[in-house]
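Cont'd.
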Amino acid sequence: MKTKGRVGGATPAVWGAAAGLVLVVAVPFVFIILQAIFPQLGSGSLAAPFSEFAATLGDGALVGMAINTVLLGAGVVVLSAMVAVPLAVCRALFRVPLAVLWDAILLVPFMIPPYIATLGWIMTLQPHGYLQQIAGFNLASFLFSPAGMVFVMTFNTLPVVYFAVSRTVEAVGARYADVGRVFGASPAKAFWRLTLPLATPGLAGSLLLVFAMAIEEYGTPAALGRTAGFQVLVTGIDLRISDWPIDLPGAAILSLLLVCLSFIAFLLQRQVLKRGSYVTTGGKPQAKDKRPLGRWAVPVVAGFALVAVLATVAPLLAIVLTALSKTLSGGLAPGNFGFDNFRAILNDGAGALEALVNSLLLGIATALVTGLLGATASYVVVKTRARGRFLLDALTVLPNALPGIVVAVGLILAWNFPGLPITPYNTPLILLLAYCCILLPQPVRYATAALQQIGDNLEAAARVSGANGLVAFVRIVLPLIGPSLAASMLLVFAVASRELVASIVIAPVGMQTISTFIWQQFEQGSIGLGMAMAFIAILVTTMLPLAALALLRRGGAVEV
Amino acid sequence: MLKSIIGVGMLAAASIFATSAAYADITVYTAGPQDLIDTLSKGFTAKTGIKVNVFQATTGKVMARIEAEASNPKVDVLISASWDTATSFDKRGWLVDYTSPNAANVPDFLKTKDAVAQGVSALGIAWNPKSNTPEPVEWADLTKPAYKDLVTVPDPAQSGSSFELVAALEGKDGWKLFKGLKSNGAIVAGANADALNPVMQGAKAAVFGAVDYISLASEAKGESIKVIFPKSGTVIAPRPAMILKWSKNQDQAKQFIDYMLSDEGQAAVAADYLMPARTDVKANRPLISQLSLLKYDVKSVYASRKDTLAAFADTFK
């Protein structure tokens, strides 16, 4: 791809992307670095630089935590790939029975907050949990182990891989494999040598996301890892801010370590993608017809069903059962069920509805901002020859390794600086900034993968026909990357509307979000109420994007 | 399509601005429980017309925010769940001296010149009567075979009161008790709620050192939970309320402290199953005078916090 001519003259896009990335990513990140270097930054003092490094990095447990972090991330990546890639390939190349249903079901894990899914699994698999109450046995020793953590996290994040890979493989289509077959390759060989390699951008991009999500995730390792004695960097970071006395500089230093890990993964992914060209959309008509599965129909459907149960049905069932239980200790007894918790939420006891509206608005705004910024930034990185585009690319992957809590602290340090004439701090905009920072990598990865499959000749043709850069981008590029971008914006919406860790620290005074509401219920031991809220939130965040997609599809603008 | 996206975006942005926090007369940062601060701020506003804007999180998260904001602080009143925060803020000179007229019936050990307790919680054993285990009466009971693999311990690194309990018990008998717990299969759970949940569902039988008011509230809701305060002694966690010296609304902040210590305010504290700070306010739960307390020196306990936590982690490795 390097050898091909790139589109020049996209200067407004370059400046727009750069300005957006500086505001959303670089500003908080710089303040995190400053906090790591200057321990008393919060009080406005630059005294004793680097004084905390020795103590923090000299901690003997650190190496173990770093190794565990990598192991966990790698485990989730491998298992996600093993489970999601075969399904995605089937979905992309064959006529899978009930395909739309499986897509819809696999969309749901996006909407289940990881800490809720984990809690659901705990309540299902622990002794006297739902599984034991129904089937008479429990799987506690499996759940509370590193393998259990990998399992729970995989089934929460594998839709990322499933949707990215099925989309890119679909874009590759069967055409290239057919050419291979003509030249004598077996079907398997054509798949392994042509189809899968051509889908590498989507695969590598989504696996990078999964890795970064796994090493950044807090709830699951905190709930499951402690019992297994399996500490990771994020739990180490949170421990420094979980009780008085708190250690902000230590948390910042550990976060930088996490960023390094993620950056290594990012370089690895770039190295993989450097090897070849992935252009498959060249303006030639695509045959979209899929093949029948034949005798493989039953096993493939069974595979989909199994994954659907583990990723969506089981956690959702645990959430609903808990929400419907009057008391936790009452168990699955007929007399113990009722709608008390849902009634409490609808009666708006603790500002539940307001929290719901706040989160939904923030989710929509975050999806729009990150979608626009992500599309522009990845366009600049992939399609222009702007100088410093590697830097931009690096900036877009950075936040994925920043734990939410650290982003929050960085944002407070940056925007609560005395003497700023206007500041988003203590307004809902600070949450928007935090969510955009944390979630920007998603649209960027998806859009980059899509852009790498689009030939430059399409845009060049538009320019030759008289369109200016903006028109060519809006009329040619945007519609082509639309499906991928829309999918990633869905993901952003879902995650932003339930983000917990940053929200707890940075929410403006007096403002609740879905997740802070749920978390406060849990803290007070009202698990049923928290789960009822979680269920309503999952329902709404699933329905809203589906409705939006249906509307768009009717308009003929996006095909997903 | 682009136009409609921009339109939706502007709409979303506009409504976000519209939901922006209203102008606040005082800002209170507090460690839970949420409904207590809701009741207090509602009652206070009804009485004085002064609005209260609340930020509520765990003590650690509240402190992280104050620490990050320190160059341009926003908070007027802080209510923490750990008395140690009052001590260190006093040392930094961040607090306003104030003795509320309503603090007359607050015992001396629950007030200083610049901090006063809102209420007090204690630690106890939270036990599930449906767990087919005998009712424990002492800490050491939980090391018996009847509770094999059935005990959770809140992480002292994540909860100030758990830390004080560990330190006080360790000061009394060394690590023997905790080694016994470990060899009996007890596990260290996260913060308080994480330790209580498995006991409510029946996966575990008892929490070693549960925060009492959460367990008492769960019991009142019909959960199968009983709180037991061992005779050998436990620890209490007074929740200090303080006014920050940078507050521009110190008079209103003082009024808030007065209201918090008024009959009405203390009744709200008691309604959440915390012990009221005032000895003359009734509560539907055991009070400090009915508990036996472990004796330990808070100062020296916190001075060796790091070592104690390391030794604890080592015991449960």
